[in-house]
Amino acid sequence: MKYQNMTPQSTVRRLPLYLRKLDHLIESGIQVTSSQELSSRTGFTAEQIRKDLAYFGAFGTRGKGYNTKFLREKILKIIGLDEQTNIVVVGVGHLGIAITRYNVTKNPYVNVAAAFDIDPAIVGKKILDVEVLHISRLKETAKKQDIRAAVLTVPAEHAQAGFQSIVESGINVIYNFAPVKLPAMKGIYVHNADLSAELQSIIYYATMLHKEKNKILAKK
Questions:
Q1: φ, ψ for residue 20 (rounded to 5)?
Q2: What stretches of the chain adopt beta strand conformation (E)?
Q3: Cβ 74 vs Cβ 59: under 8 Å
Q4: Domains of the chain
Q5: Which residue among 43, 104, 138, 180 sits deepest, i.e. has the most Cβ atoms within 10 Å of its Cβ?
Q6: What is the pLDDT along the chain (220 residues), one digit of tens a residue?
């Protein structure tokens, strides 16, 4: 789905990285930072960082840089993390369990309100404090808990049904880990995470580096 007159997706994806580095700076007692400092910590150019932040306003002072706490608060508000966002996980296999556990223990910005599955052997159990409910209760939960996003972690053969259940529940933002590209729909934002393709991309670099290593060894 394409959105008009909105911040580029590449910029939006970099904001959480800036936020993470600001968290580290604040934890280290650093009160003021600069685009150059953020550049050295993130790998993005100082110019790119300034351009990204400029989409949302002027947060620094020329020659002085950025107040770390102020900038962190602004980025939190821009992303929507100034208050916890309620999400659900649909599909309680190994990946669904791992994602639920991670977000419960490591991600203070979201609240996993519930997890959903169709397997009677799983429904009724808990992942830490997160209850696993039958998928038929997704719509009721979405309305009651004001769910803003769903993480879909089901096998390929169940992806379409899971997607349909999420859409029918009124949730319009989906992070899809199923190995199927979900269809575009008006008013629905889907981010498809293709773990298999990403791993294959990494293998390309592993192959290239392995060949280079062998060339160096052959010359010795």
A1: -60, -45
A2: 32-33, 66-67, 85-90, 110-117, 126-127, 130-134, 149-152, 173-176, 189-192
A3: yes
A4: 9-79 (1.10.10.10), 85-197 (3.40.50.720)
A5: 138
A6: 444 447 888 999 999 999 999 999 999 999 999 999 999 999 999 999 999 999 998 898 777 899 999 999 999 999 988 889 999 999 999 999 999 999 999 988 899 999 999 999 999 999 999 999 999 999 999 999 999 999 999 999 999 999 999 999 999 999 999 989 888 789 999 998 877 777 787 888 888 888 888 888 887 7
Residues 154, 162 contacting (CB under 8 angstroms): yes
Burial class (CB in 10 A: 0-12, 13-18, 19+), 2: exposed
Task: Name the residue with tokens 């192959």.
Answer: 207
CA torsion 40-107-90-141 (nearest 10°) is -140
Residues 15 and 106: their CA atoms lie apart, in Å, by 18
Strands 130-134 and 126-127: antiparallel
How many other CB atoms sit within 10 Å of the CB of residue 124?
11
Which one, of 165, 169, 171, 196, lies nearest residue 181 by Cα? 196
